[in-house]
Write a structure and sequence with these properties.
The chain has 66 residues and is mostly helical. It contains 2 helices and no strands. This is DUF3955 domain-containing protein.
């Protein structure tokens, strides 16, 4: 995967987290739309973790080839 695509996907996930944080009602975070926002935040965090794992595996693969 190209580094530009990685950065774009990373930024999109970060923006999704930022947007969904604004949607949370901190007085009652487990009710209504706040629940959906929390689920989306967790999904975006999972996407970021997967992207980081993928980039680390690519670096390891490049070192093994050398």
């Amino acid at each position: 995967m190209n580094k530009i695509i990685f950065i774009i996907l990373f930024l999109i996930a970060g923006l999704l987290i930022g947007y969904n944080v604004t949607q949370i009602d901190f007085d009652d975070p487990l009710n209504g739309q706040s629940t959906i926002a929390l689920i989306c935040i967790v999904a975006a965090l999972c996407a970021i973790v997967l992207l980081v794992i993928f980039m680390i595996s690519k670096k390891i693969q490049e070192k093994i080839k050398e």
